[in-house]
From TrEMBL:
Binding site for FAD: G16, G17, T18, A19, V189, L337, I350
Amino-acid positions noted as binding 7-chloro-L-tryptophan in the UniProt annotation, renumbered to this chain: K82
Organism this protein belongs to: Marinimicrobium koreense
Stated name of the protein: Tryptophan halogenase
PANTHER family reported in the protein's UniProt record: FAD-BINDING PROTEIN, FLAVIN-DEPENDENT TRYPTOPHAN HALOGENASE
InterPro entries with a match to the protein in the record: FAD/NAD-bd_sf, Flavin-dep_Halogenase_NPB, Flavin_halogenase, Trp_halogen
Gene3D superfamilies the record matches: FAD/NAD(P)-binding domain
Keywords recorded for this protein, A-Z: FAD, Flavoprotein, Nucleotide-binding
Record-listed L-tryptophan binding positions: E346
Residues the record marks as active site: K82
GO molecular function, one term: nucleotide binding
Length: 502
């Protein structure tokens, strides 16, 4: 069977920032042996949003794809390591829990360890669940080292991600991509033309009315959606009834201490505040709902809770949580904020750019743009958005707070059936099941369920087949081993100074 060579000859990426340059870097690597020109167009006078400074562990896969050295990457982005997220005042004021990377304990007879912990917990024993997580214990001790190569060592269980300066990350990837042939045009795009016969995008139009034609267009223009929405009128699915925050104010400040190896999210009256430690500063921001708080009051709250002197003026952002009805429409693919907005509560923004790139590489088109491939891309994208949406909603729904209008609303709101099913399973016997290759693993769901007061009525009955005294001894050894392992690691700031100082 013969195949006509109908390869895409030019790809135009509209917009730079994290999304544009991640896509450009990945294409420059993947298409290095193909006769495809990649052009990235970014306006010299439109700033990027740049609030996504925390990541999750799969970013290591992206860096490996590009063959990026980890220490160089952290030096260039002034990054630090991240072992998880501390949540303050989410379930109720004065209560804190930690969402770690990695797993809790070790399975016993093929039953997840948290089931055994639930039995001990009901007996008033076993300590906190976080004591069985090496990343949790290391985070609070301020220690870090990459995982040990010996699979029998507890130190092999270390899981981590990064905090980074998103602007420096985009600059780093720009240099990477341009060195591999990506052409950058510093031009302002004012619109696009479409083919009259099928509605496909034909060219982008610059502010001097000159044009650039391409076969495939990738919209990284941010919340505006210059191509996917303004040109193709794809439509948007609004999720504010589940995730009502629609504003953010961001401001970096001086760091008062050595960087801690974790992100902090503190629930406030009308939303939540992030704290992200970099080598050279703290990233701070307040995500809030404009129905319950004015922009000026949000800015005042953020300023009042900074830990150091401000390093820049406040940056105000507006958004609508949700997604495009099609991330890929005709010959245009929306990536990053142009595809949808999921508030950065669980550091998914950069990851969703990464998964969009991975789906594109799996379903890379030719100039026929087969609707079957496009439909499959959109199906997978929709699943990802919905599963992440449900996980974010859980943080707002599972709360005992009734001290403000926002928390009373989210506590009482109706939730998607898919999330209700997850809640029902956990409340029954502390069981968690992953569906459709969803992002968040069992540990993530367990951390939020337990941290936000979702208490199971029972535990797995197989737990009772294990001798109680033996369980007590095994659990005690696990805790001691994890504490000793965390204490054996270097201080986080010492590891950075040795390998990654900017």
């Amino acid at each position: 069977m013969t195949q006509t060579n109908n390869f895409v000859r030019r790809i135009a990426i509209v917009g730079g920032g994290t999304a544009g340059w991640m896509m450009a870097a990945a294409l420059s690597k993947t298409l290095s042996r193909h006769p495809c020109e990649v052009v990235l167009i970014e306006s010299p006078d439109i700033p990027t949003v740049g609030v996504g400074e925390a990541t999750i562990p799969p970013i290591q896969l992206f860096n490996r794809l590009l063959q990026i050295d980890e220490h160089e990457f952290l030096r260039e982005t002034r990054g630090t390591y991240k072992l998880g997220i501390e949540f303050v005042d989410w379930f109720k004021q004065g209560q804190t829990y930690f969402h770690p990377f990695g797993r809790y304990g070790a399975d016993i007879h093929n039953v997840p360890f948290h089931q055994y912990w639930r039995k001990l917990h009901q007996l008033g024993e076993g300590g906190s669940l976080g004591e069985y997580s090496l990343p949790t214990v290391a985070a609070y001790r301020g220690t870090f080292s990459p995982p040990d190569d010996n699979p029998r060592s507890v130190l092999s269980k270390m899981a981590y991600a990064y905090h980074l300066d998103a602007g420096l990350y985009a600059d780093y990837l720009r240099r990477y991509a341009e060195a591999r042939g990506v052409q950058r045009l510093a031009r302002r795009v004012q619109g696009a033309t479409v083919r009259p016969d099928d509605g496909f995008i034909e060219s982008v139009v610059f502010d001097d009315n000159s044009r650039l034609e391409a076969d495939f267009f990738i919209d990284c223009s941010g919340l505006r959606g210059l191509l996917i929405e303004e040109t193709l009128h794809t439509g948007y699915e609004d999720w504010r009834h589940w995730l009502p925050c629609d504003r953010a104010v961001a401001m970096p400040c001086e760091a008062p201490e050595a960087p801690r190896p974790y992100t902090r999210s503190t629930a406030r009256e009308a939303g939540w505040q992030w704290r992200i430690p970099l080598q050279h500063r703290l990233g701070n921001g307040y995500v809030y709902c404009s129905d319950y708080l004015t922009d000026d009051a949000a800015e005042s709250t953020l300023l009042a809770n900074l830990e150091g002197a401000p390093l820049a003026d406040p940056k105000r952002l507006r958004f609508t949580t949700g997604r495009r009805k099609q991330a890929w429409n005709k010959n245009c693919l929306a990536v990053g904020l142009s595809a949808g907005f999921m508030e950065p509560l669980e550091s998914t923004s950069i990851h969703m750019i990464q998964t969009a790139i991975a789906r594109l590489m799996t379903l890379f088109p030719d100039n026929a743009f087969d609707p079957v491939d496009i439909a499959e891309y959109n199906r997978l994208s929709d699943i990802e958005y919905e599963r992440i949406r449900d996980f974010l909603i859980l943080h707002y729904k599972a709360t005992a707070r009734d001290d403000s209008e926002l928390w009373r609303y989210t506590r009482d709101m109706a939730i998607p059936d898919s999330l209700q099913h997850k809640l029902d399973l956990y409340q029954s016997r502390a069981r968690v099941f992953r569906y459709d290759e969803e992002l968040f693993a069992d540990t993530s769901w367990i951390a939020v369920f337990e941290g936000q007061g979702v208490v199971p009525r029972r535990y797995d009955p197989l737990v009772d087949t294990y001798d109680l005294e033996q369980l007590r001894a095994v659990a005690a050894r696990m805790r001691q081993t994890i504490i000793a392992g965390a204490d054996s690691l270097p201080r986080h700031e010492e590891y950075l100074a040795r390998h990654c100082t900017a």
